[in-house]
Amino acid sequence: MQLIEATYSDFLISTDKSKLDVIYIHQYLNRESYWAAGIPIEIVTKSIANSLCFGVYHEKQQVGFARMITDGATFAYLADVFIDEKYRGQGLSKRLMQVIKEHPDLQGLRRMLLATRDAHGLYAQFGFTPLLSDADNFMQIKAVDVYKKG
């Protein structure tokens, strides 16, 4: 995967995995996100290793993250997108999405998917639409509360 770095005001967006703060990412996903609450750090580490990752940084401190699960040829799934609450309202999520959509390894894909409970307006600005007409074509196995210890 091609290394990309883009600046936005005082922020850097980079696909360089060596810059990622895995502990920070884990803490956010585990404690702040609704979609990955309780996720073990080992799972976060493995997901990063197997994805195209985008870190958002301010003065070398990580303040956001997103990852694409992709074969780089036909399909990609956008996951774990977040901007730290202290840095929201500055256009960072829009700039992050722009960098993701323009990444050379994500061009010409047949399909790009994501799931969101609360950010439809953001993703619609970048061409994402509800499945509606294709919904009957999709099936899933959904593991509810997979990170909760039983």
TrEMBL record:
Keyword Electron transport: no
Top-rank taxon, per record: Bacteria
GO terms assigned for molecular function: acyltransferase activity, transferring groups other than amino-acyl groups
Keyword hit for Cell wall biogenesis/degradation: no
Domain N-acetyltransferase span(s) in chain numbering: 9-144
Pfam family, one: Acetyltransf_7
InterPro entries the record matches: Acetyltransferase_Butenolide (IPR053144), Acyl_CoA_acyltransferase (IPR016181), GNAT_dom (IPR000182)
SUPFAM superfamilies reported in the protein's UniProt record: Acyl-CoA N-acyltransferases (Nat)
Gene3D superfamilies: 3.40.630.30
UniProt keyword list: Transferase
Listed PANTHER family: FAMILY N-ACETYLTRANSFERASE, PUTATIVE (AFU_ORTHOLOGUE AFUA_6G03350)-RELATED (PTHR43233:SF1)
Designated name of the protein: GNAT family N-acetyltransferase
Phylogenetic classification of the source organism: Bacteria, Pseudomonadati, Bacteroidota, Sphingobacteriia, Sphingobacteriales
